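As agreed, record passed on underneath.
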Amino acid sequence: MINLRHFTIKSIAAQAINTRAIAIFMAFLTGVVSLSAAAQVGLADVTVKDAWVRTTVPGQKGTGAFMSLTAKSDLRLVGASSAAAGVTEVHEMKMNGDVMQMRAVSGIDLPAGKAVALQPGGFHVMLLDLKTALPKNTTVPLTLLFKDAKGVESKVELTVPVAIVSPGAKADGASMPMNQHKH
């Protein structure tokens, strides 16, 4: 009888150890699945050229980020984020009669191998609820989020220079002033 009791206690102890091992193993698997899901957002195969963010003055709450994007395969720019702004959106600006209108868009198609310009007066990334003024010759962190046709997400992380005009603008500074549009 003592041996049977001893055996029963050993069995219960073994079950407890097995249950704990299973719980640890399940926690490990959950962590692996979480890491796997996080790893699905890879680096996008996108070339970014002439990126810049327009300067702001103290109290100004919004500005635009502009650049040229060329994807190696068909992608869609579906979002953006920046530590410099409370809200970062993909926008389109266009003329409606004699009024310039700006609105958030769900994304911008990037056909494989074709440069798509994000520029003043057209598609751009809008930085809203700025946390501080963005003076000339500083930089802004910016992350662009893309999706392919299968819904797989990828991103590009940038450090974008702040400037008054595009790096490729004419020497006389010819560029559309940010304050000449209506919302």
About this structure: DSSP finds one helix and eleven strands in the chain. The CA atoms of residues 57 and 133 lie 5 Å apart. The longest helix spans residues 2-39. Residues 1-14, 21-40, 171-183 have pLDDT under 50 and may be disordered.
